[in-house]
Amino acid sequence: MKKLVLLMLFLGSIQLNAQTVLGKWKTIDDATGQPKSIIEIYEKDGKIYGKIVELLNPAKRNSTCLKCTGEDKNKPILGLTIIKGLSKDDDEYNGGKILDPESGTLYKCIIKLNGKDKLEVRGYVGFSLIGRSQTWLRVK
Fold first, then answer.
1. Are the C-beta atoms of residues 134 and 30 closer than 8 Å to each other?
2. What per-residue confidence (pLDDT) applies to 18?
3. Manganese as a keyword (predicted)?
4. Whole-prediction pTM value?
């Protein structure tokens, strides 16, 4: 009986771990539909952040954030933190920002799991109705 309880707890913990935004995610280019980058989402001081850990277009691997402002200006895009300071709110994370390295624009951000392997990412200005959404795919 104890073995069965331990097995159920173990399997439950695996399921909980699969239902997290933490990990690596593949972004898809809106215009071409091609994979663009790999973002690693991590937790730091109780907040959620995401940084670019791989650029999938070899021609862009040495790009810098020319249009960014502040501390991100002229930083290499590879390694750049683009999701900043999200907090968990029920089944979504919000209250932080997301950076578009191509335009240098910082948007408000909401992320939410859609199943265990899809992440809905929404960047917006003002109200969440005025913005753009992407679906990122979990990297296994």
1. yes
2. 54
3. no
4. 0.84
